[in-house]
Amino acid sequence: MSEGGMLILERYDPEAPSAIEFRRLYSRLKYKLEGKPVSPLMVTSAKHEEGKTTTAAFLALTAARQDDGRVLLVDMDLHRPSVHRSYGLPMQGGVTECLQGAGDFASLAKKTRLANLDVLTSGRMVRHPSSLFDPPQVRTFLESLSARYDMVVIDSPPLLPVSDSMVLSTLVAAVLFVVMAGKTPREVVARGREILRDVNAPLAGVVLNNSKGVLPYYYSYKYYGYRQKAK
Questions:
Q1: What is the pTM (predicted TM-score) of this model?
Q2: What CATH number does domain 37-230 carry, 3.20.20.70, 3.90.1170.10, 3.40.50.300, 3.40.50.720?
Q3: What strands lie across the sheet with 151-155, from one edge to the other?
């Protein structure tokens, strides 16, 4: 395993408002699920640039710092991967290779400066990433990750541009839906919620991301009026 994690770890201040909010978010998520499995946890959004990658990266870091066993952050946004940049790690050698049978996650997972936090980057870019999201294959992949790690946090593609997250949402224990404050149109959020509802995805809640900084707020899936709009 190669080592990285300086970028996000350098930014992390446990006493900062953002760190406190992420701890609150993680605690509320576990409380809401009332003992049900939290892992694998998928973090998605309706479209790009809503803050889903930042949310996933800090949630994984939060879980690791709370000593919730071994934690793995996985970049499954194979169209526009960015987790590797958050942790200052090489992109190559990751999910793509695992799903193509060209590598094993146990050897491809990259260590960070936290002993119990590993990162599985997206791997090399491929021409048609969605073709790798074969449900039985992805299910086996996630089961293998869960057998080795206590907490698996997945940064997934956004819901509207591609179908990958729709498939992935049916194979995880919980889904967090990230919305950028003051940016995401109501109808876009409603469409994302509809996609998750149509496949009976285990939506655990909505994270309202502060557009002026990393400051998430957790809501139930009824988030303001979006529940009515999605019907």
A1: 0.86
A2: 3.40.50.300
A3: 3-4, 110-112, 117-120, 71-75, 151-155, 41-45, 174-180, 203-209, 216-219
